[in-house]
Structure to design on (1448 residues):
């Protein structure tokens, strides 16, 4: 069977590089087009990454393959939908706002940008959590008259939180969550991202817009699609958070306080997470991990450096599950989620895999 | 007027060094005795700090004065109360348990150790917050038949939290607080303290016993001394926290969610903290800062590296005051408190200053 | 006596902020003009530092005074030499190339930029090392027909090296030096400077152009002005270096191997540095430290975090003086020099102080 | 073919854990005995790693296998040579001094400890560099009357230096080397190793005994075994170095200045390293990398975080090859070598593989 031909827009940036690394050797998706800004167009991808002072600006740990380095970069504006079966988008929100709808007229767009996350007809998919929201893309196509559609992936800080809340919602109900994040630098990208002098021996207690994203997206992701598949009702969970930046390379740590809908014990909460298998359709996708959540008994875990790569960076690790004593049916725990794997490129690829399994793609 | 003669036990450790630095040039306390383990006894203080490979193990940023370096170290066991007016104690809890009562039979002991913090007749003083608890030392003397007493300083993570809660308790009442700390390495001392390989590019989500200390101590500090001065009733505030360690040298950052006893606005909460002057007796002590709390408008503050030294490390800096939306009358904010100044040695000295102002010392 | 009126160009950047901090309360220089790019012109300095998301981009540890925050920023292009007695320049090399000569036509310009460092008629002054080069500014004025002149300060990595070589050159002669630097992030500024993700858990083994600067500047600084004061002959010392970047905030560490011109012992080399007082004229300037070099006996020193602030960041600290065994009359040592104090703004102010003491300024 | 049965002494420490990780799935060596201090004896290995506060003290990135966790730890003193074919030793030098000779009476001991490195009849093997020294173990057996022998691996800082010097020695001759290291924390182990507060925002310019080890070991490794195989003549290369510690997890960076024995160009030096295949016997061992040295053109490389894992941590990466201009036939370059893989456990295993290929083992 021929592989699906995918274009990647925003290919030279950090997020784009993560898509390239994640799609290498994918069983049914082949990256056949790399698009970037006009400045890079016409160059080989390897040359496009070379800076004035001789550096190759390739930042992910997997090496850049010679084949990819030789691919010729095209301008995002010149990208033709007819040459591809789908598009992955790693551009900034303002570029996404113009580029993604143009492409979605004809083919599916899987995007890491926030531009369309909050539109009513756009699902925000985390396959194990809300695969059931996928049919909303039909409504999106109908309403917008598109042959394709846009499916953005959630904010990276939301992903780990939503994954760990899902089994609690299913088993006990969840009324409220208060979360403090200790986020990695990679979430800020590289232009300029987090400056070394600002983060060494320091904590930055504010990440613009992040808290609002987590609060809105969590409700949307945990919400319910109505019977007709045309409208999403957000979950009525109340979410409040404080998002901070710490001197960590990759892997967001989150300190979660949660109020459940019914009584539970620490053992039951732990068991609910451990036994959770998530949506059926998401269980055996090429990018699915063995388990979505790993609960650790060692009280010093999870730690971002030790645990972020669990199951290829696709699992959320959890530890320190305890009763909270303040909230009604309150529990608290700490989670680590890989913000640039499950929380970004690989998460977006997982969504494409899910939609294909559901017959909504290609 | 002759200065009060103070002995310091645990003089060679990191906490002890902080006492030495903080007492240099004190207006009415003079460090006339330095005690440490028998291994150091008989050596000059400078020699006691010298390690086998030639290093001088002096770790605070203020330089070690030649006079202090020349002082002869005595063994803690050999310390005679009659030679001093008071003692500062920077020993570990297990040593404190034996040593401090022996000395307190005759003279006041101000301690950084946790050994006696939870005893009913022992006040846990933060001068601006609960100077009114000080008379409990009379009850302690009566009950134990001592001429001196023990006054421990609170856990360093509790201090910043209690300082910021105090004005809210006074003005609005506080029902509950949920806190996540991002604590500095210096809180763990140096034996071995936090190992470099464990904290670079990482977060450690657990600090043994820390959360329990914060929960119990906060209630005690905010509690009320009964009319007779013989018993403390803890505040009924409910406290839940998760304490983590980050790659910061000094200065604990805390993300606080608080449920007030009555309605308020962000402006009123901010104003309550800004206008708070604390207990009258604590306002003009030698170690008192200009203000106990500084509320910052820049949303990227407070940051531990930039703000920990505010007013000599004696002020708690606060920022990001916002409504919380989940808790009843809920607000959230971020604070930074200097864990080894206000939260340790200098805080303990401040307590001694308060007791002297109240006529309870010397 | 009226103070000298100084303008600062490049006032909003990190280097400019360091000039502002260093000139606060200067005994005879007053900062009366702050210039920056047209984008900032017309705003108060405090407003010019405020970013779109509410942050005040003030990065030096000394607080920004309210008086400075209220000063109105003017555009560098609009700066009029007649309003000032001298100018400090903290702009990038390309801006310096246009702006500094325009101002130098009328008044002295003390610059942190590299634009004119290598011109034959431009001295590169480190007051204790080569105050004797200062008369070269007369030649510069004559040749260029200027009333003012340009005196750049050396590259920050060169400064500590040249300061420690000076006593060796004077006492033993120096034939060659091989140096490896471990440089702080602050040397790279903030636009974007060193990105956090690149430096945590890492070393960057290349700093563009840095090594060439050190090699050329060291020879020039240690050179000799001819009798007529019209030409500088570089020292024939051979210099080779490798410059790297490490995860340090401030303070360059340098590992130096040096070949002396005559036999010496470790004690003599140490003594030569310890006793060195430098040029007479530089000994009691307002910014002069008690000693230019501090040699430490503790083999674990100097360390950048512990020693960079020695004598207000104006001293170079040295340790680990040993025989080398490979080079002829070879010795090796480690130095720490504060790259943004002695090695930048404060060093440039020191030069202005020297020239005034020599009657070459104002 | 039955696998060789290996015991590991010092199994619970960091170095021991690295041996366990490196020997997992080894084609012909099986770890059948784990020895540690009497405190751990009798416990399962997993239990021996568990600390009082619930942490599992397993520090290498590869997970601990359940099979290994279940193995029962024996006391080093109780270890019987007859149960094994060889021993890997990861104990401290003082323990090694007693334990290793006792075992070597009967079976070969491959050690990471420095205790016997400098004995005349003990080779210091880096297989690609000096496999030819291996027959010295016969002399060691003869002289000491042992059936086994001790082969220590070199100091981790020496390894990368010796590997890069080897092709230069072979092609051009090398007269002298001056090296400054920027060493990772893992080299210091964990008891307590490098304390976080000492290394964040800092450089430590001294590592006790390290420089002497590098100087002596480099000469020995590059030396020649005489015709009879009974004596090693050290190479007459002169070596001088300064060893520093930086805030890097793994991977030593070294800035090298080298004086060659004959004229060369940068291209020739680069080519000599690139084409070097090392000793024939070492080319296809199970732990051999594709190439021993990778020379990079990007001037910003090698960097420890990006390059330490090259070819499984067994390759030395080199960059910035330039003429030096000071030394006779002088060149300079930067290298990165994985100090706990090629420079420790995996390097020691490689030596065992070599000796087996040479018929000197089992």
């Amino acid at each position: 069977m021929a592989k699906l031909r995918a274009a990647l827009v925003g290919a030279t940036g950090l997020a784009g590089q993560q898509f390239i690394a994640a799609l290498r050797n994918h069983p049914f998706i082949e990256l056949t087009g790399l698009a970037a800004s006009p400045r890079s167009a016409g160059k080989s991808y390897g040359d496009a990454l070379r800076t004035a002072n001789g550096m190759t600006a390739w930042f992910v740990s997997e090496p850049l393959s010679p084949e990819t380095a030789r691919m010729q970069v095209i301008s995002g504006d010149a990208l033709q939908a007819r040459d591809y079966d789908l598009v992955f988008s790693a551009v900034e929100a303002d570029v996404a706002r113009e580029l993604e709808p143009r492409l979605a007229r004809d083919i599916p767009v899987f995007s890491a940008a926030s531009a369309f996350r909050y539109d009513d007809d756009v699902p925000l998919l985390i396959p194990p959590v809300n695969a059931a929201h996928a049919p909303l893309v039909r409504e999106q196509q109908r309403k917008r008259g598109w042959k394709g559609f846009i499916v953005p992936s959630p904010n990276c800080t939301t992903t780990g939180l939503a994954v760990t809340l899902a089994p609690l919602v299913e088993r006990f109900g969840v009324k409220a969550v208060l979360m403090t994040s200790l986020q990695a630098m990679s979430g800020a990208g590289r232009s300029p991202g987090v400056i070394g002098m600002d983060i060494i021996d320091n904590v930055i207690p504010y990440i613009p817009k992040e808290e609002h994203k987590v609060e809105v997206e969590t409700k949307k992701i945990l919400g319910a699609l109505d019977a007709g598949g045309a409208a999403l009702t957000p979950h009525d969970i109340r979410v409040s958070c404080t998002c901070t930046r710490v001197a960590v390379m990759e892997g967001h740590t989150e300190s979660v306080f949660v109020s459940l809908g019914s009584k539970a014990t620490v053992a039951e909460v732990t068991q609910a997470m451990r036994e959770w298998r998530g949506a059926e359709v998401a269980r055996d996708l090429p990018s699915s991990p063995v388990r979505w959540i790993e609960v650790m008994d060692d009280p010093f875990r999870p730690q971002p450096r030790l645990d972020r790569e669990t199951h290829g960076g696709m699992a959320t690790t959890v530890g320190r599950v305890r009763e909270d004593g303040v909230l009604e049916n309150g529990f608290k725990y700490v989670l680590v989620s890989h913000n640039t794997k499950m929380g970004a490129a690989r998460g977006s690829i997982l969504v494409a895999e899910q939609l294909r399994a559901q017959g909504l793609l290609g």
